[in-house]
Specification:
Blueprint (H helix, E strand, L loop, with lengths): L4 H19 L9 E8 L7 E9 L3 E2 L3 E14 L9 E11 L4 E8 L9 E13 L3 E14 L2 E7 L7 E5 L1
Parallel strand pairs: 3-10
Antiparallel strand pairs: 1-2, 1-9, 2-4, 4-7, 5-6, 5-8, 6-7, 8-9, 8-10
Length: 171
């Protein structure tokens, strides 16, 4: 019995996609880094505040391709009121270094679940893409951040030097 051409083509495409997925470099281990921020805006806390930032990036990408980055941020401060799910949103600039230059902005941060009063807030879902055109080790470092909650915007600048949060091997 002969296999119809369309079935063979579909099977070949499925196997090629599976091979590409298996051969893709795994995401780099996402270790959180602590970054000091000074924030301004209504209700912004005084002094330097710590944010725990986790950037997940591919371990490696071919030169000239795009690396998809995901970011999660957790505050060290506790909230004084209940925060409903998706009431807080934000953006963060990610500075590129090493074999890369420039910056990209991760957007889409939110608190997916309600946060009870007295708890820290974790914003997840931040995403950005970085085009990496030079071979070598490209680094990703947290930069300025903005948070929007209850109609108020708080802008935060890095205080001091932020540590590298992810490294991508560009081949």
């Amino acid at each position: 019995m002969r296999t119809p051409r369309i079935t063979r083509t579909a099977l070949a495409a499925t196997l090629a996609a599976a091979a590409a997925a298996l051969g893709a470099p795994p995401a780099a281990a996402a270790d959180a880094v602590t970054v000091g921020y000074t924030c301004t805006g209504p209700g912004a806390p005084g002094g330097v505040q710590s944010l725990l930032v986790t950037v997940t990036a591919p371990a490696g990408v071919p030169r000239g391709s795009t690396a998809d980055l995901s970011v999660e941020v957790t505050t060290a401060l506790t909230v004084p009121v209940d925060v409903p799910a998706r009431a807080a949103t934000g953006e963060m600039v990610l500075e590129l270094g090493g074999a890369a230059t420039g910056s990209v902005t991760a957007t889409g941060f939110t608190n997916p679940a309600a946060v009870p009063s007295g708890s820290t807030v974790t914003l997840t879902g931040g995403a950005a893409s970085a085009e990496l055109g030079t071979a070598g080790a490209a680094t990703v470092t947290p930069g300025a951040a903005t948070v929007h909650v209850f109609g108020v915007t708080v802008a935060c600048e890095v205080s001091g030097t932020a540590p590298v949060a992810a490294t991508i091997d560009v081949t």
